[in-house]
Amino acid sequence: MSGKNSPTTGTADREIVITRLIDAPRELVFTAWTDPNHVAHWWGPKGFTTTIHEMDLRPGGVWRLVMHGPDGTDYPNKIIFVEVVKPERLVYTNSGGKKGGPSAKFQNTVTFEEQGGKTKLSMRMVFSSPEELEHVVKVYGAIEGGKQTLERLEEYLAKL
Fold first, then answer.
1. Model pTM score
2. SS3 label, residue 83
3. What is d(CA 21, CA 85) in angstroms, rounded to the nearest whole number?
4. How far apart are CA 94 and CA 107, in angstroms?
5. What is the pLDDT of residues 92-112, one digit of tens each?
6. Residue 80 belongs to what H/E stretch?
7. Phi first, then psi: what are they for 8, rounded to 5°?
């Protein structure tokens, strides 16, 4: 689900936008995204587990995690928060990838919009170039992985 953007931003050829309407209140969805005790239960595509080493939720704060693939491959990630507007928006840079392999780098803007007791969650990942976008889609399955991650979030929230 590669997204199109408004003509003023000029990033449509190097971005992925994934949106999901989640049947949970915005505050809860935001908390599930920003509290490491929640994140560890749903982060990553299906079959993945996540170890969170630190999560400092403030501009300039660092979030270090390792996603563990179902095949045993580790994917270390370092996220640096740029903007934190509770419960509306998170902006962060992400660098990570397969341990010992090429990394993926992008900026992610996650928005949480209240919609009648539900939450419209949107992730907008902007890469440095169309080639970098193509790389993460082909090598890491970024679009499907993003969709599965949001699906896992929704499944987790349904249990709370």
1. 0.90
2. strand
3. 20
4. 6
5. 999 988 887 777 899 999 999
6. strand 74-85
7. -75, -20
Q: Please say if the pLDDT value at position 60 is more than 50.
A: yes
Q: Alpha-carbon distance 131 to 18, whole Å?
A: 19
Tokens linked to 134: 């193509």
CA angle (105 as vertex; 81, 17 as ends), nearest 5: 80
What amino acid is encoded at 89 in this protein? R
**DSSP β-bridge partners for residue 34:** none
Q: Is the pLDDT of residue 37 over 80?
A: yes
Of residues 71, 70, 72, 67, the one with CA closest to residue 104:
67
Q: Which residues contact 101 (CB under 8 A, 6 or more apart)?
A: none
Nearest to 29 by CA among 109, 119, 89: 119
Which of these, 110, 118, 102, lies nearest to 146 by C-alpha position? 110
Q: Does domain 15-159 have CATH number 3.30.530.20?
A: yes
